[in-house]
Amino acid sequence: MLTSGEAVFDNYVAEIRLDEKPVHLALWDTAGQEEYERLRPMSYSKSHVILIAFAIDTPDSLENVTTKWIEEVRSICGPTIPVILVGCKVDLRPENEPQDPGVPSKWVTREQGERVAQEIGARAYKECSALRISGVDEVFEVATRVSMLMRDGVPAHGPVHDASKHHRRRSSGKVSSDQDEGKGWGCCVVC
Fold first, then answer.
1. 18: helix, coil or strand?
2. How far from 155 is each of 79, 127, 142, 174, CA to CA, in Å?
3. Which residue intervals make up region (Disordered) (predicted)?
4. For a Cys-Cys bond, which of 29, 106, 135, 174 suits 189, CB 3.0-4.6 Å?
């Protein structure tokens, strides 16, 4: 879908290997701007999991997770759609910078991200850096596993402690793609 020469949604198809099996992912990266609010819900309709992303170097973007994004997702998708909270640009957060308690931080800490993930009922919290290509595979692996757990009837809320072990037990070790049935794993990325 295009508007005024700008993409409203970016769509990607990716194949990953999970437990030695190919899994096809269909990803919709939605536009976060206000002018696209009425169009964004169309990308949610066939999603099996929602990734809500925020920028580590922009604390306001984490606040938007609780004041805007989770409310939009829950109102459109309902309470059963699993959500993964993703902190992006982790490479910008200094490793050992002392924090002055009286001054607001320029960066979101891992603890803050984990706290918000728990608050919104996310299945997992992950951090990644596209620049360093760090943590990106883990984001898509956990999203795929959560989607597969939902397919197997595991509730959407609560953290995934060991999705790999749990999924193997529920599905006898077989990991497959719905691609054979004309479906794919739908994943919507909200930023």
1. strand
2. 10, 23, 15, 20
3. 153-183
4. 29
Distance CA 29, CA 47 (A): 12
- Burial environment of residue 23 by CB neighbours within 10 A (0 to 12, 13 to 18, 19 or more): buried
**Cα–Cα dist 152/139, whole Å:** 20
Task: Determine how many CB atoms are found less than 10 A away from the CB of residue 5.
Answer: 5
Q: Please tell me whether residue 126 adopts helix, strand or coil conformation.
A: strand
11-22 pLDDT, tens digit each: 778 788 888 888
C-alpha dihedral, 82 to 157 to 78 to 42, nearest 10°: -10
Q: Residue 28's beta-bridge partner residues?
A: 11, 188
The alpha carbons of the chain give a radius of gyration, in whole angstroms, of 17
Evaluate if pTM is beyond 0.70: yes
Q: Using CA atoms, how far apart are residues 150 and 81, in angstroms rounded to an integer?
A: 8
